[in-house]
Design goal:
It contains seven helices and six strands; from the N terminus they run βαβαβαβαββααα. It is an alpha/beta fold. The chain folds into two domains: 127 residues, Resolvase, N-terminal catalytic domain (Rossmann fold); 75 residues. The chain has a four-stranded parallel beta sheet with strand order 2-1-3-4, with helices on both faces. Strands 5-6 form a two-stranded antiparallel ribbon. The protein is elongated.
Length: 234
């Protein structure tokens, strides 16, 4: 009976195939191919993280060497990574240990050859394409929300939620927005970030936590407001 090490990866952005579902797919594959799973390693990280930086993957490589395993098995090819180059590096590292990468959903099964390699490369390229397309859709959706003045992420200094929970448009905060206006006015006069911080401290303009503003906080406020004004001028 041949030996295999199972590798499972999930990320906070991609939970459509959870760890247990992946493990079950691998177990079914192993039973069908008369392969014994001699170890299981997991990573919780983005598919764009380089494989040599993943503790689970490097642990799987060490297990392959220690147990003289024949395969590194994943539930799907995109569990190796969401970039073609990362999948290629993973394949090379596994081969350097004397094993092969296989996936439970691979139509080629345990076959080898140029045709099978081509199919696997196409699958890797498709995973990279899908991730890039998703990033574009998310970026476009966020741009639309910003254009509507809707909340994205944390509530920005100078703004407050609408009293109607159904209304997603932000409203100027009665006191914070006046502080934002002063910050912009000082910026237009040519004051630097640290100088604006000192002016805020002098006038007791503090952050929401009651602390003196840091230069990076002032920079974010200025950048956000200038970007918003540019969108309004379009």
């Amino acid at each position: 009976m041949k030996l295999a090490v199972a590798y499972i990866r999930v990320s906070t952005a991609e939970q459509e195939l959870g760890p247990e579902a992946q493990a079950e797919s691998i177990r079914v594959w192993a039973a069908e191919h008369d392969v014994e799973i001699c170890g299981e390693f997991r990573d919780v990280c983005s598919g764009t993280i380089e494989v040599h930086l993943r503790k689970g993957f490097t642990g799987a490589l060490a297990a392959i060497a220690t147990m003289d395993a024949d395969f590194l098995v994943v539930a799907k090819r995109d569990r190796l990574g969401r970039m073609v180059v990362h999948c290629a590096v993973a394949e090379q590292l596994v081969r350097s240990m004397g094993a092969r990468v296989v996936s439970a959903d691979d139509p080629g099964g345990l076959k080898e050859g140029p045709e099978v390699d081509l199919i696997r490369t196409i699958l890797d390229a498709n995973a990279q394409f899908e991730r890039a397309r998703l990033a574009v859709r998310v970026k476009e959706a966020l741009a639309i929300k910003r254009g509507r003045g809707e909340l994205i992420g944390q509530l920005s200094y100078g703004y407050m939620r609408h009293p109607d929970p159904k209304n997603k448009v932000l409203l100027p905060h009665p006191t914070e927005h006046e502080a934002v206006k002063k910050i912009l006015a000082w910026h237009k006069k040519g004051l630097g970030l640290r100088a604006i911080c000192r002016k805020c401290e002098e006038e007791r303009i503090l952050s929401r936590t009651g602390l003196v503003f840091e230069p990076q906080q002032i920079k974010r406020i200025i950048s956000r407001e200038l970007s918003k004004n540019e969108r309004q001028d379009l």
